[in-house]
Amino acid sequence: MAETGAAGPPASVRVGLVGYGLGGSSFHAPFIDATPELDLVAVVTTDPGRRALVLQRHPLAEVVGSVEELLARADLDLVVVTTPNATHVPLALAVLRSGRHVVVDKPVAPTAEEARAVAWVAAEHGRVCIPFHNRRWDGDFRTVRDLVDRGRLGPLQRAEIRWERWRPQTVAAPGRAWKDDPAPGAAGGVHFDLGPHLVDQALLLLGRPATVYAELGTRRAGARAVDDAFLGLTFPGGAVAHLTMSLTVGGPLPRFHVVGRDATYVGVTTMDPQEAALAEGRLPGGPGWGSVDDSEWGALQAGNETVAVPTLPGDYGAFYRGVARTVLAGDSPPVTIGEAVTVLEVLDAARRSAEDGTVVRLPERPMARWNA
Fold this sequence. Notes:
Blueprint: E1 13-18, H1 22-33, E2 38-44, H2 48-57, E3 62-64, H3 67-71, E4 78-81, H4 88-97, E5 101-105, H5 112-124, E6 129-132, H6 139-149, E7 156-164, H7 190-193, H8 195-206, E8 211-217, E9 228-234, E10 240-246, E11 256-260, E12 264-266, H9 274-279, E13 298-302, E14 305-309, H10 317-329, H11 337-356, E15 360-361
Parallel strand pairs: 1-2, 1-4, 2-3, 4-5, 5-6, 7-10
Antiparallel strand pairs: 7-11, 8-9, 8-15, 9-10, 11-12, 12-13, 13-14
Helix pairs in contact: 4-5, 5-11, 8-11
């Protein structure tokens, strides 16, 4: 992965960050800084306010004005792309062709075909593209996976996963209007904003789906892109997944309702606390990071018996610890581009299903980890 000389592999990975909006400032830079093996050496931003924040928070990092300037540097091993969705593919390709590894915010691409093109360029240049599917490390989802891995639910029959919000106003935050862009290449709307997370979680629990059915709608007055979506997935073993993502729900239902042969896990409506903590300026890794109190625990139910299940702490830092091991030691990426391609195949099929009012069957192929 990283270049090796006579003295052995480098002790750290030199990282460049493209973008310092919400994603760069809250979801990437703090965790890069918290990972000893990663050194943030440069940040691309042209916004004066964001430039000042970079200099204040990351005094050892240089602020540069363009991706071209960043890629001209000799002191980079990895570049993190956290920019509007429509820019992910061209920026990822530029980084890979410059000989660097790349982390790309979700969705990696607007379509599975374009994500496959990124995968082939990565392979051609001997580098890895690592999709940023950080919600694998939400505390509630970590808890679900732990219950499944320990056999507490028995074979899964149905997984209901929801991400429901109440955001009736359609005015986007400054610099975020691209999220409501309905153009196909823009990859806007909740289908691409929240969908990759929910589909990724469903696939981790149940594998590659056989069929996809979807209802995609625009409910809010003045909205342009999809703001309410339902996906129904079936799996070869007979299990199903029901995925709901919406900006129009005033009374959300539990985030997880996972039914197994032996028991059912019912989660709560509250979200993992890490995002709120980051928005408040808290740094990851402190006491109680990612933890919730017992009033926010879910429950395991079997017949008349109900047992509270402590929610595992959320840990987004696990993603970047995995990135460091990938670059320095050649470990399998924490998320592979092949897994992201499968997620996008599902989202592509969902669009076709909603447009045609049909159930779309996916081609059979293994859930390969392309970068393993």
